[in-house]
Specification:
Layout (H helix, E strand, L loop, with lengths): L5 H8 L3 H8 L7 H14 L5 H5 L7 E6 L5 H16 L3 E6 L4 H13 L4 E4 L13 H8 L4 E4 L10 E5 L1 H13 L5 E5 L5 H16 L9 E3 L4 H13 L6 E4 L2 H13 L9 E5 L3 H4 L6 E4 L2 H16 L7 E4 L1 E3 L21
Length: 351
């Protein structure tokens, strides 16, 4: 299939190529009607400026785009703060977008930022539906446009751009060891969506940690959440009602943990007494809980700094190597001795 050109956009919009070019360059000397028709044609055709056109624009904007997965997630808020501060120190303004864990919303933001001619992009990428790590067609076209880009926190296996991530193998091994030493044998896992590379990595690392500690893996003890509060609440109810009566649970991100803790509080289930809890992401809500929640956390300051440094290198057309940070486990009172085998989590929950 031939690439869409500005002439195609002009033809569909019913304007001259010169008018289409003025609209796309942000020139105010165009009518609102012409702008509307050109913008509609761009959307219909999926038009993006090609690499040759970008090479003709030598003016820097001293701005970058940052796309995070969910602005409500305090983990990503902290990551955005780190990126923005390090970009500012480098003389760059940051436009921040929210994908809302949705690939279509991601694509809309990235296409808009490309048209605004930002100097580069730092992206927490969203995969396609149930296909872990698979890029959308829009993401492929944006990468093909050759705009400098770095992935942070997550990756796409079929897109080769520099990436800054974190692995949780050692931290999960420590968490499972701590739970085992407190008598826990059946440990549940509330995980994330299949389209997120971090969800896949954490699930695999969880199973590996169980095996490393001599504990069996069991798919029945895995709940598939979506990194959002409501799915954490659903996972909390699933955990309490589970026929295998797991005595501990590891939750794969902070919003799901917050949703779970709210349900358990409402049902008067006692964390650290009735069962033990470990959660990913060291955010204030987990540390302020009574008892404080044991966490597996990343160094978001280091992640944000590394992402900005990598993007600056790409902008300078220098090599930017991938970087994998290592997560850490912090033991807190939410991990305690396992209750007797026949104990219930909360009155009436289990026979």
């Amino acid at each position: 299939m031939n690439a869409v050109t500005i002439k195609d956009v002009a033809r569909i919009a019913g304007v001259s190529p010169a008018t289409a070019s003025r609209v796309l360059s942000g020139n105010p000397a165009t009518s609102p009607e012409a702008r509307a028709r050109v913008e509609a044609a761009v959307e219909e055709l999926g038009f993006l400026p090609n690499a040759q056109a970008r090479s003709l624009r030598s003016t820097k904007t001293d701005s970058i785009a940052l796309l995070i997965s969910d602005v409500r997630n305090p983990y990503f808020s902290d990551l955005a703060h780190a990126v923005e501060q390090h970009a500012r120190a480098a003389g760059l303004m940051t436009f921040i977008g929210n994908a809302n864990e949705d690939s279509a919303q991601q694509d809309d933001f990235l296409a808009t930022m490309l048209s605004r001619r930002v100097d580069g992009m730092i992206v927490v990428p969203q995969g396609l539906g149930e296909q872990a790590g698979t890029a959308t067609s829009m993401m492929r076209r944006i990468v093909d446009s050759e705009i400098p880009m770095v992935f942070v926190d997550r990756t796409l296996h079929d897109i080769a751009v520099p990436n800054i991530t974190a692995q949780s193998r050692e931290a999960l091994n420590e968490a499972i060891a701590a739970l085992k030493s407190n008598g826990h044998r059946r440990i549940a896992f509330i995980g994330g969506p299949k389209h997120a590379s971090t969800a896949l990595e954490r699930h695999r690392a969880f199973d590996a940690a169980l095996e490393a500690n001599g504990l069996p893996t069991d798919a029945a003890l895995h709940f598939a959440g979506d990194f959002r509060t409501a799915s954490g609440a659903d996972g909390a109810r699933w955990f309490l009602a589970h026929p295998l009566a797991p005595s501990a649970v590891i939750i794969a991100d902070a919003p799901m943990a917050i949703g779970a803790l709210k349900v358990w509080r409402e049902l008067r289930a006692k964390v650290g007494t009735d069962f033990s809890v470990v959660a990913f992401d060291e955010v204030d809500a987990l540390l302020m809980h009574d008892p404080p929640i044991a966490t597996i956390s990343h160094n978001l300051e280091a992640m944000g700094r590394a992402a900005v440094q990598a993007l600056l290198a790409v902008i300078r057309q220098e090599e930017a190597d991938p970087l994998e940070l290592v997560s850490s486990f912090t033991l807190r009172p939410s991990v305690a001795t396992a209750p007797p085998e026949n104990a219930v989590h909360t009155e009436g929950t289990r026979p």
